[in-house]
Amino acid sequence: MQRIITKWLGPLSIKRKLILVTMISSGIALFAACLTFISIELIQYRRTLLREVAILTQIIGNNSTAALIFNDEESANEILSALVYEKNVIFVGLYTSNRLFAAYARDEHIGPPPFLEREQNGHWDEGAGLNMIRPVTFHDEEIGRIFLQYDLSVITNRLVQYAVIVFGVFLVAAAIALFITQKLQRTISGPILHLSQIANRVSDKKDYSVRAEKGYNDELGQLIDRFNEMLFQIQERDRTLVQYQEELENRVLERTEALQQEILERERAEKEKEGIQAQLLHAQKMEAVGILAGGIAHDFNNLLTGIQGCTEMVMLENEISDPVFDDLRQIQMAVERAADLTRQLLLFSRKQPMAFTSLDFNKVLEDLIKMLHRLIGEDISINTHYERRLWPIRADQGTLQQVVMNLTVNARDAMPQGGTFTISTKNIILDEESCTMPNARPGRFIRISFEDTGAGMDEETLKRIFEPFYTTKGLGKGTGLGLSVVYGIVQEHEGWVEVTSQPGKGSRFDVFLPALDSRSEYTIRTRQTRLNLFHGNGERILVVEDEKNVRDFLARAMTRYGYDVTLASSVKEALMIYKKEEGRFDLLFSDVVLPDGNGVYLVDSIASHNPDIRVILCSGYTDHKSQWPLIQERGYLFLSKPFVLATLLEALSETFKSK
Ligand SMILES: Nc1ncnc2c1ncn2[C@@H]1O[C@H](COP(=O)(O)OP(=O)(O)OP(=O)(O)O)[C@@H](O)[C@H]1O
Ligand SMILES: [Mg+2]
After folding, report:
1. Spatial CA neighbour of 643 closest among 557, 546, 565, 566
2. Which of 114, 223, 253, 514 is deepest in the core (most CB within 10 A)?
3. From the CA of 478, which ligand is nearest?
4. Per the domain annotation, does 494 fall within a domain?
5. Ligand 1 centroid, distance to 398 Cα (angstroms)
6. At 431, is the pLDDT very low, low, confident or very high (cuts 50, 70, 90)?
7. Is residue 196 part of a domain?
8. How far is the CA of 499 from the centre of ligand 2 (A)?
9. Which of 119, 145, 175 is a domain's end point?
10. Which whole number is the average pLDDT over 632-650?
11. Per-residue pLDDT averaged across 642-658, rounded?
12. Do the domain assignments include residue 42?
């Protein structure tokens, strides 16, 4: 039952439930009250009716006493006929000695009932009627009996009447109850509905700021209080959570920024490191190759000095018409080429002594331009754009000419189909911001740009072009030393090279060289000599040279041009001869690197005893072994091997003239 009710009521709203429960319970109550009332009323009514029937029977009996005593049937019937006004009386019969004496029947077809046989007085129900038998007495003696049949349908009518009234009352009461319930349920369901709406809003919109309104301090009021308190707590927790979340987000943001910064820093440092490592690697490679090249160059130079000198000597001793003369010229040319290669090697290894002097680079270019035209061929046109007052630089003209030549040859090789080669010069002032290249630094510079419209280079090639022996020109065509030499020379001049190039779009080499402070000027004298102008006058020369080739050449050359030569192959021997000859020498000509010592110190020690002695030093080495700084410091004349006869003779002549 409970389950059925729950199942039936369950899905309904609280409002309906309340109305329904109230209506059902009040209906049941009302119905029970009405039923009780009707039952009592009917019982009462029946009792009253019974009494009335008994009284009526008594009255009829009393009124009929005389007719019975006098056996007057007519008056008896007359008395009974008066009952015609009593509509509920169905039948009345007066009996004497069980004989129907007089009778009254409401309907004619109603006859005397069969109970006349009955002896006892009393009443009983039969069908829809009430039967009553009463004795008629006279002086306490029964003189007859009266039988009365009463129609009880009056009770049924009454019951129907009551039922109608009760139903009416029930309806009215139900309507009133419904109305009242409608009104009253609001006091219960209203707050619940309100609470439910608030709960929905909270869950839908996550709005914890709303509050349910409290009506009374009943259970619902208390529930609303608790609910509001719960909302407040959630709201507080929510606020704290939001705060934490914001704080967390801020921290994450800060940390992310810091991390990004860190990553950027690290990447920058990494790049810097890579750059430095690459530079270091490059420098180490250059150094290694430089040492190697320097070593080779030294030996070469010694050999070449011998070959060249001897060839020249033989040529001098033979007529031009002599068939051997051509062969000798071939040898001479080969030696020149070999000497050129050695010079490149030495330039590259940056061990070549340089003569720095104040230079106007525009002038250097102007002097070179004719030769460049020849070098580059007719298919390529050369444009020049010179800065009008190009700042002077402190530079070694010879090596810088080499730079121009190497870059020009590269441009030529990059434009086999012809094109345009543009050389321009420019005064440049660099500040911190404009120094984007690794080697760049702020200051005053001249920039010499070499731009071609040739094949250009891809990234890979660009990265490697300054590597010694890196070439794309194929075996026998390029040595891969050209740009390494450029790099070395420019560095020696405290400058740097920037390259921009794209495949198919040409290349541009910008050479930056520091501009000279106008006060520090250097001069260099260029000399053109003729051998015969440098003939000696029997001056005594002590030659100290360990290489036999060179020694022989020197001996022959000096003797031929009027000098008195004594030869020594080591420091020890030299000192011995010097002592033996008691220092009677005008000039000391010594190689720097000797098997048992250093030419510079040998010269120093002799010069300390004989300050008038002239000195010429020579060497195939140009690195630290050649003691170049020392030589410069002492102001000794220096010849780098290989040297031609003219250079040797000029140097000798110069030395003797100077004192
Ligand atoms: N102007 C240029 N245009 C295109 N590529 C160039 C240019 N200059 C140099 N290169 C590239 O750089 C490489 C190295 O040049 P580098 O001058 O050092 O050697 P090389 O020219 O190959 O040999 P060498 O100079 O001995 O003749 C070249 O082989 C070439 O690939
Ligand atoms: Mg080259």
Report:
1. 557
2. 514
3. 1
4. yes
5. 21
6. confident
7. no
8. 14
9. 175
10. 81
11. 83
12. yes
Highest mean pLDDT among 136-145, 349-358, 555-564: 555-564
Measured in Å, residue 552 CA sits from the centre of ligand 1 at 40
Q: What is the CATH number of the domain that holds 595?
A: 3.40.50.2300
Q: Is the pLDDT of residue 612 over 50?
A: yes
Helix (H) or strand (E) holding 591: strand 587-591
- Where are the extended beta strands (E) located within 333-442? 357-359, 380-385, 393-395, 419-430
Is residue 487 within 8 A of residue 497, CB to CB? The reply is yes
Same domain, 366 and 508: yes
Q: Over pLDDT 90: what percentage of the chain?
A: 24
Residues 499 and 558 in one domain: no
How many separate domains does the chain show?
Answer: 3
495 phi-psi bin (left φ>0, alpha ψ -120 to 50, beta other): beta
Statement: residue 625 has pLDDT above 60: no
| pLDDT for residue 353 | 62
The pLDDT assigned to 91 comes to: 86
pLDDT average, residue stretch 13-33? 80
Confidence at residue 63, expressed as pLDDT on a 0 to 100 scale: 87
The answer on pLDDT for 654 being more than 50 is yes
Nearest atom in ligand 1 to the alpha carbon of residue 484 is 18
Distance separating alpha carbons of residues 604 and 581, to the nearest angstrom: 18
Amino acid in the structure at residue 397: Q
Read off φ and ψ for residue 442, nearest 5 degrees: -70, 155
Q: What pLDDT is recorded for position 351?
A: 56
CATH number for the domain spanning 461: value is 3.30.565.10
| Residues 412 and 385 grouped into a single domain | yes
What band does 513 get if pLDDT is binned at 50, 70 and 90? very high
Ligand 1 pocket test: pick from 337, 410, 460 the residue with the most ligand atoms within 8 Å of its Cβ: 410
Say if residue 560 is in the same domain as residue 507.
no
Verify that 493 and 567 share a domain, yes or no: no
Residue 67 belongs to domain spanning: 10-175
> Residue 171: how many CA atoms within 13 Å on its side-chain side?
5
Which of 448, 463, 451 minimizes the C-alpha distance to 511? 448
* Shortest-distance Cα residue to atom 25 of ligand 1: 482
Question: From the CA of 341, how far away is ligand 1's center (Å)?
Answer: 16
**Which ligand 1 atom sits nearest the alpha carbon of residue 468?**
18
| 155-159, 261-265, 422-426, range with greatest mean pLDDT | 422-426
Burial class from Cβ neighbours inside 10 Å (0-12, 13-18, 19+) for residue 562 reads middle
Q: Are residues 643 and 551 in the same domain?
A: yes
| Ligand 1 binding pocket includes 414 (Cβ within 6 Å) | yes
Nearest CA owner, ligand 1 atom 1 = 411
Between the CA of 469 and the centroid of ligand 2 the distance, in Å, is 10
Same domain for 566 and 471: no
Cβ neighbours of 305 (radius 10 Å):
27
- Give the chain's mean pLDDT: 83
Q: Is residue 27 part of a domain?
A: yes
405 C-alpha to center of ligand 1: Å? 12
Shared-domain flag, residues 460 and 542: no
507 lines ligand 1 (CB under 6 A): yes
For residue 10, the model assigns a pLDDT of: 76
